[in-house]
Amino acid sequence: MEIWHNPRCSKSRAAKAALDEAGVAYTERRYLDEPPTAAEFDRTLTAIGAEPWDVARLGESVAKELDLRNLPHDRDAWIEIMVANPVLIERPIIVTDGSAVVARDDVSVRRALGGA
C-alpha cells in the first residue's frame, strides 16, 4: 500500500493518520517531491476508475496559467501535464494492489483498507 501524500494538506494528513491507526504497512510517497511517471499515473487513474480531469486541482495557479479548464479532454495530454506539475493531482491517493482511491474522506479511506 502506498499513499501519495502532501503533509501540508489536512485531508492528506487525516488519511495518513487513519492508515497509522489501522496499523497497516504502507509507503509514504511525497508526490510533490517524487511525482509519478506518466505510466504510473495512467495505471493509478485506471485503478481509480477516473480520468485525469476528474482528479485535477483546477483551482491551483498553474491550472489557471495553463487554462486547464478549457483544455480538450485528451487523456495522454492531461497525464503529461499533471505529472509535470504534480500539484495538479488531487490528494491523497491510496494505491493498493490493483486498486486506488482518492482518499479525501473516511469512506474512501475505509474502502482503501477493504472495509467499505
TrEMBL record:
Cited InterPro entries: Arsenate_reductase, Arsenate_reductase-like, Thioredoxin-like_sf
GO molecular function: arsenate reductase (glutaredoxin) activity
Assigned keywords, A-Z: Oxidoreductase
Coiled-coil region: none
Sequence similarity: Belongs to the ArsC family.
PANTHER family: ARSENATE REDUCTASE (PTHR30041)
Protein name: Arsenate reductase family protein
